[in-house]
Design goal:
The chain is an alpha+beta fold and about 60 residues long. The chain is about 20% helix and about 5% strand. The longest helix is centred in the first third of the chain and has 7 residues.
């Protein structure tokens, strides 16, 4: 199993902050795209930065 596959299967129970503006992400997550629906993650409501479920910025 690759590192990417392993991290997709992990669960993050910690608070997540936007890597760009440091905004705290809400506990109730509403997915904005298919990737977020399948693997978790957020789109920052303040700056529109997309991040994974651990708060790491996703480059598009």
């Amino acid at each position: 199993m690759s590192d990417t596959e392993r991290s997709q299967m992990e669960i993050n129970l910690n608070k997540v902050f936007c890597p760009k503006c440091d905004e705290k992400m809400p506990a109730l997550r509403i997915p904005k795209n298919i990737q977020q629906l399948m693997w978790g993650g957020w789109t920052c409501p303040k700056c529109d930065c997309k991040m994974d479920k651990f708060g790491k910025k996703i480059s598009e």
